[in-house]
Every structure is written in C-alpha cells, then in structure tokens.
Amino acid sequence: MKKVVIADDSGMARVFIKRAMEIVMVEPTEYIEAIDGQDALDKMKATTPDLLITDLNMPNMDGAQLLRRIIASPKLHGTPSIVITSLLNPAKEMELKNYGVSAILGKPLDPVALAAAVNTIFNTEDDNGNGW
Amino acid sequence: METVGKALKNAVEKTFETLAFMEPIPMASAPDLSKTPCFCTEIEITAPIKGRMSIIATRPLLQRIGSIVYADMLPQVPDTPPKSIAPASPLPDSDAPTLDDAVLEDIIKELLNTLAGTLVKQLVAEEHVFSIGFPKTTSGRPPASLASWTCFQVDTDLFAALVELLPDTLHA
C-alpha cells in the first residue's frame, strides 16, 4: 500500500488535499496527516512514505525547514514532494527549486493540477523502475 | 486603492469558487450583522507590503463550506456520494451534521490564509517573494459598522473583508 504524508496546520486543507488525492490515486493508499513540519518529519521517519505533500506556512516547523531536513536525512532524501502554498509566485518557485521539490502548487488548490503533478511523479518513478 | 479593491474581489471570487464552488456577489451596501452569529479572523501581511487583512463570515456560511469540503469524511454522513472532480453534493441543511466551533474556526482561518495569499500575489511584483502571518481569531462579534468593509452575498449568507495596507509599502 502506498503512503502519502499530508502536512498542513489546517484540518480543512488536509481534508481538501486528501479528497483530491483519493480521486487521483488508483491504488489503495494510506494517508498520514501531520499538523506541522515537526509532526510530518516524525511521521515520515516512522513510515518512510512514497510522497510528501506539504504547506509552507506552518507553526513549529515550516515547510521550508521540513524540506531542508528531508534533504539532509539519509533515510528520507529523495522522497518526492509537492508543496501546496498560498505564498506561490515565480520568485517563491525559484526559491523552492533548491529543495528538490517535485511540484509547487498554489492555494486555492486546483485538483486537476494536483492530479497532473502526482501522475508526473508516478510516471517518472515508473520509468526509473522504482517506487510506484 | 482601486487596485487593492479589484485584487480583493478577484481573490474572494477565486477562493470561494475553487474551495466551495460558491459565487460571492459584491454588495452595494454594508449589511447589518449585529444579530447574526459570525466568526471573525485577521492576518498580518508582513513583506514586502505591510498591513492586515480581516474577514467576517457568518456561521451558516462556514457550516455550508464545511459540509462541502468535509462531506463524506465525517463519520455521521450517510451514503458516500460517487467520486468525481466536482464536489459531492452538499448535504441538505437538515441532514448536514453540525460542525463544532473548532472546525468552523479552522475553516475561516484557512479561508483567510488562502485569500490573503491570493490577494498579495496580485499586489507584489512577481520577482519578490512575499510573506503573511498566521490567521488569528478576533472577537466573535463583528464591528458595529461594516461601512469600510467589502461585503459579499454568498447565496443567502454573508461574508465581509477588510484590507488595511501601509501605503508606503504598496509599490513593491
């Protein structure tokens, strides 16, 4: 079963993302919700997920710090990630490129854009013979 | 301020349509919300422009948004609707489970987080990153007068927004 960590301090945002993902995902998938970056990091270390979907603006540990910690982690380095943020503009996209993010989407989230991002990640991993 | 007003209207329309498939209609005059249960929240706009955005939403509006977003993910909801990109049909008001205040507060905060980001993106040159704070709940009562607010009718419910920016920071 595939595992996806969804990190956002808003319960409504997590539900909205989960609903959009349930439409995209053909295979059975376990969704692990995290309320901030630290919670997401702890859960990722415990479960080794196939995908991280994260907000940027979170208390305790924000999304950028979370992504830096993932890059630095031997266990989690290389985990595909999608950032969904209300702070998106071209300058922020440039900034996030250094974090190895697979896709960056804006809020309000367009479920069709999320589907395209997830399918691109899955197909890339399929072509590499890994993961999905 | 006309640019800010237009940006606000665009942000409200885009957010409500995408999140909850609702169409907010600008109102010509401020309604009286003094007798309507409301939630109020505000957020700081921190860089490169500085200011604050506040919103007020009536409790029934937040309940309807919640029933659309949460729909079949609440344990009390009967008969999960078929999956599609379009949202599940909102439950009839009589069948919709009542969401508690903590959930409604979360909904209005996420609404404001999304609105503020969508607003500021339109006001800042695209080569500048921008930042906003975290939404904070303010008083449970709306201000005595909404004359300076931008008010919207969303079906039979009401929504209002106020954007206060430091003019010197506006042209970043």
Secondary structure elements and their pairing?
The complex is a heterodimer of chains A (132) and B (172).
Chain A lengths: L1 E6 L3 H14 L4 E6 L2 H11 L3 E4 L8 H10 L8 E5 L4 H7 L6 E4 L4 H17 L5
Parallel strand pairs in A: 1-2, 1-3, 3-4, 4-5
Helix pairs in contact in A: 1-5, 2-3
Chain B lengths: L1 H19 L3 E3 L11 E10 L3 E8 H12 L30 H23 L7 E2 L3 E2 L12 E5 L2 E9 L7
Antiparallel strand pairs in B: 1-6, 2-3, 2-4, 2-5, 3-7, 6-7
In brief:
Chain A is an alpha/beta fold and 132 residues long.
Description:
- The complex is a heterodimer of chains A (132) and B (172).
- Chain A is α/β, with parallel strands linked by helices.
- Helix content of chain A is 45%, strand content 19%.
- Chain A has a five-stranded parallel beta sheet with strand order 2-1-3-4-5, with helices on both faces.
- The model of chain A has no long low-confidence stretch (mean pLDDT 91).
- The longest helix of chain A has 17 residues, at 111-127.
- With 172 residues, chain B is α+β, with helices and mostly antiparallel strands.
- In chain B, strands 1, 2, 3, 4, 5, 6 and 7 form a seven-stranded antiparallel beta sheet that branches.
- In chain B, strand 6 and strand 7 form a beta hairpin.
- The model of chain B is unreliable at 75-94 (pLDDT under 50).
Largest sheet geometry of chain B: 7 strands, antiparallel
Query: What is the subunit organization of this protein?
Result: heterodimer
Rounded average pLDDT of chain B = 85
What overall geometry of chain A do the principal axes of the alpha carbons give?
globular
- What pattern of helices and strands is seen along the backbone of chain A? EHEHEHEHEH
Question: What are the salient characteristics of this protein?
Answer:
heterodimer; A: 132 residues; alpha/beta; five-stranded parallel beta sheet; 5 helices; 19% strand; globular; B: 172 residues; alpha+beta
